[in-house]
Amino acid sequence: MMATLADTQPATAQESESKHAYSAYCRERLPELMRLEQLLDTYGVLLRSTVLTRVTDGDRVLPVYALELGCSSKDCPVVAFVGGVHGVERIGTEILLAFLETLCQRLGWDQGLQQELEKVRLVFLPLLNPVGMAHGWRANGNGVDLMRNAPLNARDKTAWLVGGHRLSRHLPWYRGVETEGMESEADALCRWVEQQLFPSPFTLVLDIHSGFGLRDRLWFPFAGSTEPPNHLAEFAAFNELLNTTYPHHNYLVEPQHDHYISHGDLWDYLYLRSIESAKGTFLPFTLEIGSWLWVKKNPRQLVSFRGLFNPEVPHRRQRAQRRHQFLLDFLIRASRSSDNWLPARNRRFHYQLQAIRDWYA
Fold first, then answer.
1. What is the distance in angstroms between the CA of the first residue and the CA of the last residue of the chain?
2. DSSP string of 62-119?
3. Closest among 105, 76, 52 to 332, alpha carbons compared
4. Most buried among 2, 160, 309, 356, by the most CB within 10 A?
5. How confident is the model at residue 301 (pLDDT cuts 50, 70, 90)?
6. Which residue has the higher pLDDT, 17 or 235?
7. How far, in Å, CA of 158 to CA of 160, rounded?
């Protein structure tokens, strides 16, 4: 492509200073964003990238990126990986960036992966809340908890504060002002999912969080209701597939309401929207990493807010980035071959009955 005059013009002193200030800001506060942009620079031929929205932190303008690999047709099954919804939970973003880098490296030599990605589309939104991550906040720059921000009220009683509230942005779990709609980050995520994922015949979503329990848990909807979801049989079949494929895995698949009920859950909202759209099968999971185990092994992390959500010892951080790689790879294979394990119509009752026994009795 021929370069335009603007492309050949040297950067002005103001542009150079602005770029330098942005780089310094990322080095100091957002190494994850710097790493993401380095991946785009290195593997731009493989990665299709879009800026979903831009958010401000003072005079800094920060992009929210979505990246794609593999099949570009909307008729392909999709796996979506999301991280950094809560800014303090950096480990989820680090896991996704490490996995994305591994995939890009493998695509240079792995013919099996090259052929597999001709039949499945991978989408990554590894850092939804850059302002929150830059400051180590759970909420975004407006003090809003993005996982309580969807326009959806819980059907069952929530715990005070924890389930989401509209009292004050200075309290955790703040939902935002009802009349102002969703925050730009949450709105960008929802529009991206509806436009890019809903048309697919089959979609698996993994949204990575940390800060709860001693065991890694895979939660499926609902967070705001004790009712079983419409696709209970499909979630049960997924659980069986994971258990039979990796009988020694450490994940506990369960409905999210088992632990708390909350307003405004983004995946409850999008799951219900997917049913209204009456298109493909949309199965969202939240991976809640058992981060209390890191605190148990290193009690000094109790004195750090960040330490409650992330491993602070370097070798434990590296181990966390490694240990979930098989799950992410499993999701790709499960999506690619979903026709081989999704329950047929005459088997759905069997899976529903088993799921009610296991999860709702």
1. 62
2. EEEEEEEEE---TTS-EEEEE--SSTT-HHHHHHHHHHHHHHHHHTTT-HHHHHHTTS
3. 76
4. 309
5. confident
6. 235
7. 6
> What's the pLDDT band for 4 if we cut at 50, 70, 90?
very low
Pair 290, 213: CB distance under 8 Å: yes
Q: What is the pTM of this model?
A: 0.94
Residue whose tokens read 């298109």 = 279
Tell me the pLDDT tens digit for each residue of 83-106: 999 999 999 999 999 999 999 999
Q: In the sheet that 281-289 helps form, which strands lie side by side, from edge to edge?
A: 48-57, 60-70, 121-125, 78-82, 202-210, 281-289, 216-220, 251-255
CA–CA dist 58, 194 (Å, integer): 30
> Radius of gyration of the chain from Cα atoms?
21
Do 102 and 150 touch, CB atoms closer than 8 A? no
- Tell me the residue ranges of DSSP E strands in the chain: 48-57, 60-70, 78-82, 121-125, 202-210, 216-220, 251-255, 281-289
